[in-house]
Amino acid sequence: MTGRLQWGIPELTLTLEWDEFSAPRLAEVSAAGVTSTMPAGLPLVDPVTVGAGHVPASGRLVHAQIGLEVRMVAHETVARAGRTELRVTTRHEPTGLEFVTVLSAVAGVAAVRSATTVINRGARAQRLRSMPSLSLYAGATGSESAADESWELHRATSEWLGEGRWTAEPVPGPRFPRIAEELTGHNPRADEAVVSTGTWSTGRALPMGMLVSRSTGATWAWQLEHQGEWRWEVNRDTAGPYVAMSGPTDADHGWLAVLEPGDEFTTVPASLVLGSDVDAAISALTAYRRAHRRAHVDNARPAIVFNDYMNTLNGDPTTEKLEPLIDAAAEAGAEIFCIDAGWYDDGGDWWDSVGEWKPSTTRFPGGLGLVIDRIKARGMVAGLWLEPEVVGVKSPVADVLPAEAFMQRAGERIVEHDRYHLDLRHPAARAHLDATVDRLVTEFGVGFFKLDYNINPGTGSDHASISAAAALLDHNRAHLAWLDGVLDRHPDLVLESCSSGAMRADWAMLSRTQLQSTSDQQDFLLYPPIAAAAPLAMLPEQAASWAYPQAHMALEEAAFCLVTGLAGRFYLSGYLNEMDEAHAGLVADAVAAAASLRPHLVEAVPFWPIGLPRWDDAWVVLGLRHDTTVVLIAWNRDPAVPEISIPGAADGIEQIFPRSLDAWSAEPGEGGESIVLRNPTGSVSARVLQYDATSPTSGVTHPSSDAGARR
After folding, report:
1. Are residues 304 and 285 in the same domain?
2. Based on the domain organization, do 318 and 339 belong to the same domain?
3. If we measure between CA atoms, which residue out of 600, 601, 567 comes closest to residue 687?
4. Which of 27, 160, 198, 200 is in the most buried spot, having the most CB atoms within 10 Å?
5. Stated pTM of the model
6. Which among 349, 350, 341, 352 is positioned nearest to 315, based on CA atoms?
7. Distances in whole angstroms, Cα of residue 646 to Cα of each of 391, 433, 634, 653, 665
8. Is the same domain home to 272 and 307?
9. What is the dihedral of CA 15, 18, 23, 25, to 10 degrees?
């Protein structure tokens, strides 16, 4: 039996091939005018079990013995509500393992989502050690063969205060050398991989990456949609470079799934796009994210948030401190006011006592309700900070909930930085969180929660599970179900995903929450590369980068901070109540700009006209394009390098923020195919600029007619 199946939508098609001697595989992918033709060698499913490992021996996600022996059983296409699915059923007869791979696509979106369910149809237990969500060759996108085409791997490392730092390296290259593996008749064995352990899914690296063809520019971009442990790898074999993605594995995380006869296991989802270049691939991934996020009123009109924490109250709110901030935030135009950490604390050192989530009586002599009433009276939605998944070791809740409601190892509760971690597999843990949220919404009318997450419990609990990693995966899935339940009960509630900045900024979380903190970075000069890179990992309208101007700053520095907030979801802080007229005017101008940019922001696709930002770049530039309108967010961090050429930018650039400070100059570059921006201020400076790609005018202008053009 020989088969060839083409499936997809007009924007993206996949071709599968198989015969009676070989497993089904991806043979071709076409999207955005690019076609990648793939060699034989990687089957659609590639499980490693205790009883059947790799051929040849290796630590890779691919080249499993069972994968080679799987055969096609059936396939069907299912259409539902703008979505099309291809369900491919394959089977491994010796073990009785059946695999149902679901590939799905949404009309108009050039992306594919993949997950596989493994079902044990055999007579004895099977023990999975790893199971990729998706694996495929980069293939041949030009005249070269798949084995000879060279690529560049783009990946991002992350850490607290230094999120989303993208780098590139060649494939083949120093980490992926040519080793003449074809002479051995065997695939290589190196298992270079990007791995995340524990529950800070983006605390070490991002669960996404890109492969860019060095000859054609064609770009693969992928993401794993999981807030727990994961692994992705880019390696080479005798046929060429490949990409493979997975949730937890035995080798990396000690994960094991025991499937008794009739049991099943489903991989974490992974998604993939193919574009003509990096910008096209991220555009497709952005469209995919918008199509796959939970419906919410905030999606179309992201509210402007003031939060009292960053470089301001720093977790020490009181009625006396909050009241002037509430008034100033309302006057500036904020729509949500969030009281951050500390609102539940009576003792002044709340870190190890959190978990009960009852308002402090010492901080709010008249009660928290009076403060929240003031927020509402000033026309804003009231928000509270919450770290729901942890319980401090000194919290009364620690002795109320059953021991099984906490993550534990060998019968002892896991402690990390003076906190226990709830195990959301247990109904008592989930009930505690539900009761907390419902009480705060009902009693105080809270409409916004900043959900923080400041510890990582490691591999997880070994209670009632074959492995701690398996228990953690079940906890992760229970956590997502809990979030869904909260929004089912309170559909207008706005949820911010925060995790020590962006330590858990993966698409499993982002598909459910309305905004994501991009960092805890408190140095305004270090924030731009974080803010500019954030739309690679999330939607621009979700990317909440702190804008924390202060009265003591020079006006250019204050504007610099505000521009960082305008790079995505506007998220304001700072002692607004202490500002003079000029500083307060800047803030009001930024809030007005954020409101006016909203319709553009929620439909725009990001691009990087001078390349992906690097940590120490003098210039950082992010573009947001919708139809023919382009918004540029540009930061000049080193006034000794006052000029930058923006390829492809059009004449007629308008400075839309700040309106009260001098405009940067913009002149056509050599050849007329770029615009040269110049910062004339002699200091660090940042601007939000806009142009119409069809505009015949030139220079930089302010939007107000009385400002005129400043050169």
Report:
1. no
2. yes
3. 567
4. 200
5. 0.96
6. 341
7. 50, 49, 10, 12, 13
8. no
9. -10
